[in-house]
Structures are given as structure tokens and as C-alpha cells.
Amino acid sequence: MTSTTSRTAVVEAPSDYADLKGSEEPRLWTRPLRPLTPETSLGFEVIEFALLFLGIDLYPWQKWLLIHALELNPDGTFRFRRVIVLVARQNGKSMLAAVLAAWWLFVDADRFEDRLPPFRFKVLGTAQNLDTAQDVWNLTGRWCDKENEGHVPELAKAVQKLQRKNGQPGIYLRNGAHYEVRAASRKGGRGKSAARVLMDEMREQQTWDAWDSVAQTTKAVFNSQLWGISNAGDVRSVVLRKQRETRIAEIEDWLARGVDELEAYANGELVAPTAALFEWSAPDGCALDDIDAILQANPSIGYGEITVEMCLQDARDMLEASYRTEVLCQWVTSQVKSFISPRDWRPRRVPVAEVAIPKGARTVWAVDTSEDRSTTWVGAAVLTADGRPFATVRMRRAGMLWLPKYMTDLAEASGHREVVVQARGCPAAEFVPLLEEAGLTVHALDGGAFASATGRTRDRVLDRRLVVVEQPDIDTAIEGGVVTEYAENKAWSRRKSMPVDISGLVALSEALYGLEVLTPPAPPEQSPPPPAAQIITRDDVDGRSEVNLAYARF
After folding, report:
1. Tens digit of pLDDT for each residue in 164-219?
2. Which of 127, 104, 99 is nearest to 179 (CA)?
3. At what angle do helices 308-317 and 2-17 cross, to 10 degrees?
4. Is residue 288 scored above 70 in pLDDT?
5. In b/e form, how buried is each residue of 169-207, taking b as 16+ CB within 10 angstroms?
6. What pLDDT shows up at residue 550?
């Protein structure tokens, strides 16, 4: 009976969903400053280029995106210098990126010859590895490679050289414009400035090295533009999460403003955001089989190969965390429950300028090292002017050998000499004798005290007393930080939290515990002051008959 019912459901399902279409408009998106027309957006030009030259009729969501992302300022330059696009996998991101790259290279490179001559017009494609970056490049290359049977003659005529060898693929035009690909790494994007950048699979950027390297290449280029394209990330996607959070805050700020202020933006009286987010994703907390949510995250349904039935099958076959990330384009910060909820943590963050520390206030340091000994962190805790605990990470540096001298110098400069360290079972325990030899006051925590420090951090978050500032590494540790059982308490577990390094959060927790629980050292004993001078008087003599310095004349 069960198998018959299942077969019947499979047969009937296509008629139920056949007419459904994916959402053309994203769920989250940055609003335009004015109506978008062929005069105010170059997206219309890209759509026409794709159809007439490449023979590609883009999907509705791709057309919508191009029109909104390529909005123009009144002077004809791009409004957005950075564009972040999030959409579920297999919805046509690569094709969209290849069309955009081809249009940049063969059409847009000549637009401002006086300010940005074609020989300086560089399109840079990056991804977490060279093969992924080259996937988009290969699509563009097929249209302009005269040796390819399906090439476009008009484009091939403009090509001077198409290089596929030596690990550095490139398309070089006769006018000097060129398209190169690099792996997204600290060194991969360095070099000459880029007019256009395509960052594919931004979710895989787990450090800031690639972003800091590549994003800087566009800053000094006239009318430059960087596109970051990806599906949703996870707790490790530090770069994409930061870009997304900032863009969402700008969107919310925009929508909260009144009509007068919006008109002021449109009239140029106020500065409008120059970065944009366009995100096709399912609403947070939706059911896995929510059809509307599936259509919202998969805008190619009804136009390409993806169907609702495929997504529903994935909901049954995949792990929930993977399904939400890959198919619903939702952010799954961790597949385990974080000890401290990010939702409780975020409201504790305040701008640095709002943190007021009384001069000379007791400051407690703490140090911890990652399990693989790759990174050592220095935390700090102090009471603010209004009596609330403020905890932060002061320093993060590779390795361990630098720490003793750094702490010695820090103690001398600040006058604060208390350091909290876990005494056993972790790499940082090696610091205890070294810091004691340097003359610092070391609070060595045993397992029970370490668990208490872990719990106190969450308690201070929940009672809304703790003050912190935005630090991406600590925010990541909060989302991925889990604990292990210790007697009847819970303590931070560096190993269970991997691949997230929570050592910075450990140092922050230990410093907070030291400030609020541990007794500061007694001040050094001082020699007692000499007794106060005494005036001795005599009643048996006439004060004027003997020599008395009080009456002496000089």
C-alpha cells in the first residue's frame, strides 16, 4: 500500500507544480534611486547583447538582476561599486557571470576611453581555486575562440590572443582589454589594478586574505565594479557574512526612512549606498517543503532544468543543514547548537566610540592558543564608567613564541599585570611558568574554574550586562562555539568547535572571569611613614630669655 501510494504521488506531482515559476524579484535587495530605464541602467544593454550576439535569452531573474545591479549615476558611471548576489545552487549563476564578463570585455571596455583606456581595462575572475574561477572564463572563452565551432565571429575578430596554458588563462583583445583568472588567495589578486572583478563562490572565503587583496585592486580605478556571487554561507564564511550583514543593515535603514529623506537621496542631497545586495533565499525558519520558499530561493524554476519536484526530493535525501544552504539559500551558522546564541550576542555589541573606560581602571588580561598552536590570542576585560564589564580581544598573532615578551611589554606599558591562563590540558598552559618568571601575576585556572568562566560569559550575555564591540573572529566563534561536559558544568571545547577557532572567545571568557571573580593581588607593602613632628614646650623658662629660633632675627 505504501509503495503504491508513493508511485501515485510521483505520477501526479508534475501536474501540481508544472505551472509554477521561480521568483523574479529577490527577497532581500537594495532599492534604486530612480526608475530604471535604458537611460538609467546598463542592464538593458547586457540583455540585448546576450540575445543578439550570444543567442541567449536570459531568465527573468537574471534580467531583473542586471537591470538593478547596473544602475547608473546621472554622469553615466555605475552607482554600485560592489554587488553581492546570493541565490541557490544550479540556478544559472555561472552563465550570468559569463555573459556579464563578455559584455564588460567586448562592449563596456570602450565606454570611458579618456578616464579608463581599454589597455588598462582588466576583468579579473577569482574563486577559492583556479578551476572554479576558470569555469566562468571557459564559457566566455567559447564565444570568442575562433577554434570553437560555436564561436561568435564578431567577438573572435576582436581577440588578439587566447591563452589557456601555464596556469594563467587569459583573453586578450586587440584594443588591450583583457580577462584573467586567479585563485582567491592573499597573493592571487595582487598586482595591477582591475576594472571589473568577478568573485565566484564567495562563501568559500574563510579568511580575509583574498578579499583584502582583490578588493583593493578596484579602489583606484575609475568606475570600477566588483561582483561577489554565491549561494548562502555558513559559520566559516566570514567575508560573505560581513558583506551581507552590512548590506542588510543599509537596506533596513533605507526602508525605515521617510519619503522626504528618500527623495533627498534621489536628488543627490544625501549620499546613497554604493554597494548592493540581491538575495534570492527562503525566509528563515520555513518548512523544508514550503513551496513558496522553494520558489523564492530558486528563481530558475519554470525556465531551466530545476523543478519543484527535484527540490522536494532533495529535502528528503539531504541533511537538513546542507539542504537549507544549497537549495533554500539559507545561512546555517553551525550544524550544532552554539553555547551562546548569536541572536543574544549581537545586541551586546556597541560602537567603539561608546565604550568609556575610567582612567586607571583595573584591567585583567588572558591568553589562549588554538588547538593546532597556529594562533595565540590576548583577551582583556575592564569595567566601563557605568560599571558594566567590557570584554574584548586585544591581539591575535600567529604562533606562540611572541607572547611572553608581548605580555611583559604590555604590563610595563599599562601597569596592569594580571593574566588569566588555563593551567592544564591546552597549549596555552605552557605560558604559566614563563609569565610568572617575567614577574606577572598569573591566575592559573583549573578545569572547574575554566568551566565557570565559560558559563559566566553566557550569563553576562543573557543578563545583558556584558559590553563588546564588533570583532568578526569573535562573532564567528560565538556562532560555532560549542562546549563539552565537565562534571556538572560545561566548558568551551576547542576541538568540538573545529573548524572554527574559538581560542579568541576562550581568552575573552577567561579575562571576564578574572575581572569579576578572581582577587587582585594585594598592593606591595610600604615602609610606615615617620612619626609626625611634635612641638615640645617648657613652662619653666621665659621663652624670650633663651635662644628660640621662632624669635630669632636674621
Report:
1. 766 678 899 999 999 998 876 655 555 568 999 999 888 888 788 888 888 887 88
2. 104
3. 140
4. yes
5. bbbbbebebbbbbbbbbeebbeeebbbbbbbbbbbbbbe
6. 40
CATH annotation of 79-279: 3.40.50.300
Return the bridge partners of 291, or none.
Answer: none
Integer CA distances (angstroms), 554 to 448, 549, 550, 551, in order = 75, 10, 11, 10
Question: CATH 3.30.420.240 region(s) of the chain?
Answer: 342-516
Specify the pTM.
0.65
Residue span(s) of the chain under CATH 3.40.50.300 come to 79-279
Does residue 380 sit in helix, strand or coil?
A: strand
Q: Which amino acid is at 30?
A: T
Query: Domain 342-516: which CATH class?
Result: alpha beta
Using CB atoms within 10 Å of the CB of residue 85, give its burial: 0 to 12 exposed, 13 to 18 middle, 19+ buried.
buried
Output the furthest CA–CA distance in the chain (Å, rounded): 133
- Tens of pLDDT, residue by residue over 529-552, are 777 666 655 555 454 444 343 433
